[in-house]
């Protein structure tokens, strides 16, 4: 299974030379968060660590509303190596982060322009086909796409923290799963 996370949401951008200007649906803090997420997807090589880190920063932002974006706090919480944390911070405040976010913006606009719903979830790469069920019951929507034999998480009685962590991720994303 391939999970593609695309941090951009209902933003837009302009590009002149090496300079990018982003306008995010919920303001500058969302733009910074999207850059951190874009850099995390580039700099953190392990998908589970990517999901844990992004889940942490989104949860921390939503619950505690810190003054600074919680990059360091979450890097420590998920035990990212110090050099990776440094790379994330450097990337998010540089042209590299801008260019990465612009790439995700291009992907978003290619998927659906303008993006109609945040989060947007698709299993088929078709806008809005899977979105309603996936945003209300991600596990059930995902499991309906998996052929038998299904993993234990697809059991109706199965409780899983993975469901929770994956559900929080799409708050500012659209993502696609290829099974």
Automatic annotation (TrEMBL):
Q: Which domain of life is it from?
A: Eukaryota
Keywords assigned? Glycoprotein
Give this protein's Gene Ontology molecular function annotations.
oxidoreductase activity, acting on a sulfur group of donors, disulfide as acceptor
Q: What Pfam family does this protein match (any one)?
A: GILT
Task: Output the InterPro entries linked to this UniProt entry.
Answer: Interferon-induced_GILT (IPR004911)
Locate the coiled-coil region(s) and give their ranges: none
Membership in a protein family: Belongs to the GILT family.
What is the name of the protein in this document? Gamma-interferon-inducible lysosomal thiol reductase
Task: Please give the organism.
Answer: Rhynocoris fuscipes
